[in-house]
């Protein structure tokens, strides 16, 4: 048969519209008319093997919905547009011994959706470059042996595609493993950076507190402090605990200190009695702590959550005052703000027993009075 189809043969295919099997193999065909099979809607088996076909016209099989077996082996096909195959019955596609370099996405989807048996073996050299990477991902993920790649080779290396797929699978596993390890490492680094950021933020906040205290202390020189009334002890407590402190702790403590030291002056400074009216609270706290020889904290949950109590502890730490701690109720030190936590870790403390425990209460006052006198060097300012 000649390389170009005569009009008589085209008319012959048109007249045999019920044709189901057509064998055009070994005819040295170079090209095919795009409408050659357009009238053969019942065509089931088509053999185009052992010709010289280098390409298939677009849409050549578009009118063959019943095509089940298509043999294109032993041709010169390379890159081919397979979108013209729309048969729902196709289950065998033989493209062996051609020059095929890749399988386009349409053909891959066709094979996956209809389980088409595809033969690629002998003289088909697939492109193994990175641009064709999706083909190897698809081949390595084939769950059923729909694609026969026996004796199919890589066009770049000449190595069997089966070996390439095994290498690709190994590489994919190594790549995924390295990617997961890298991702885990990145997450670890981000977590470490987040922790460092938290610690840096806390450290920076502490620096800001110290700077704020220093600025506020600039107004209180030694000359200004000397003009103020001196106290033996500054008593810091939460406003919520005022009733307990003012009724049970403060009056007894000051009376016992006056009796022990034989002094009638006010010895304990408290905000409710000794702060000047109409002044800034932070300035009064600084003045009070500066003019006292020691500081006493009456600690409770409310004290730990109070910003003013935290400020009082910061001032006491900055001025390096001796600190006495009275615990009203049990509370975890870890929940304290930084400055108060430092105080509790450094100084010993005594628990308030309550007025109902007479025996414990007497021992409490003896220890507390002794501690105040010991911490407040009696030769310091007040008794000078």
From TrEMBL:
<keyword id="KW-0812">Transmembrane</keyword>
<keyword id="KW-0677">Repeat</keyword>
<keyword id="KW-0675">Receptor</keyword>
<dbReference type="InterPro" id="IPR001611">
    <property type="entry name" value="Leu-rich_rpt"/>
</dbReference>
<keyword id="KW-0732">Signal</keyword>
<feature type="transmembrane region" description="Helical">
    <location>
        <begin position="180"/>
        <end position="200"/>
    </location>
</feature>
<dbReference type="Pfam" id="PF13855">
    <property type="entry name" value="LRR_8"/>
</dbReference>
<dbReference type="InterPro" id="IPR035897">
    <property type="entry name" value="Toll_tir_struct_dom_sf"/>
</dbReference>
<keyword id="KW-1133">Transmembrane helix</keyword>
<keyword id="KW-0433">Leucine-rich repeat</keyword>
<dbReference type="InterPro" id="IPR003591">
    <property type="entry name" value="Leu-rich_rpt_typical-subtyp"/>
</dbReference>
<dbReference type="Pfam" id="PF01582">
    <property type="entry name" value="TIR"/>
</dbReference>
<feature type="domain" description="TIR">
    <location>
        <begin position="229"/>
        <end position="372"/>
    </location>
</feature>
<dbReference type="InterPro" id="IPR000157">
    <property type="entry name" value="TIR_dom"/>
</dbReference>
<dbReference type="GO" id="GO:0016020">
    <property type="term" value="C:membrane"/>
</dbReference>
<keyword id="KW-0325">Glycoprotein</keyword>
<comment type="similarity">
    <text>Belongs to the Toll-like receptor family.</text>
</comment>
<dbReference type="InterPro" id="IPR032675">
    <property type="entry name" value="LRR_dom_sf"/>
</dbReference>
<protein>
    <recommendedName>
        <fullName>TIR domain-containing protein</fullName>
    </recommendedName>
</protein>
<keyword id="KW-0472">Membrane</keyword>
